[in-house]
User: Fold this.
Amino acid sequence: MRYADTLLADGEHIVVRSRQHPLAMVLDARWALVAWGIALLGLLLAYLFKPSGSVLDIISWITLIAFVAGLVLFFVYAWRWTAQDYLITNRRILKVDGVLNKRAADSSLEKINDAVLDQNLLGRVFDYGDLDILTAADTAIDRYRMLAHAPAFKREMLNQKHALEEDLAGNLPSPPLGAAPPAAPSAATTATRLEELNALRDQGLITPAEYEAKRAELLQRL
Assistant:
């Protein structure tokens, strides 16, 4: 069982499991590629110039060290990549990183306002993108960099958010039998709200159309 699966609550199940695109792992492991480039250069020098003695020994050791260093670095970055879990469940999104030291960040679906997806040309070709998750205050709470299948991830996240909101709305308690209907607002309360509405219009915070609609609604409740 993966670490992320142990974080699920009762009744929570995984809908989508993803991680960064493999290209992100290759870019992070660029120093491993540099080390392998040095090893390849050493082999070319040995083949083209055919040195001997101590020069050959130095080139051989540099080539060997560079190759082994590149192998170790690439293994570390590949291990980090395989340890990633970017999950959408029926309740939240969950991002887990780390090999030995784990970091888990989650956001409840009902608190998510929107998600901003950025895809460059390569991202559209290879199906990855950067996804910023936004709260109701339009504040980014997490960024999913070079997320594999990012458009599908965002679409399913919004689908699960909608399903959760419908489920919560359907489970709202009904008023007790015989309960009196909510009292209509008093004239004083309505007057206060109209003054507040006028202030919002004068400050340009609402449009004239919104002002008229809200004013008609308040007057209708009297």
About this structure: The chain has seven helices and seven strands. The helical segments are 22-28, 30-49, 54-82, 121-126, 150-170, 187-202, 208-220. Residues 27-81 form one domain. The beta strands are 14-18, 85-89, 92-97, 103-108, 112-118, 128-135, 140-148.
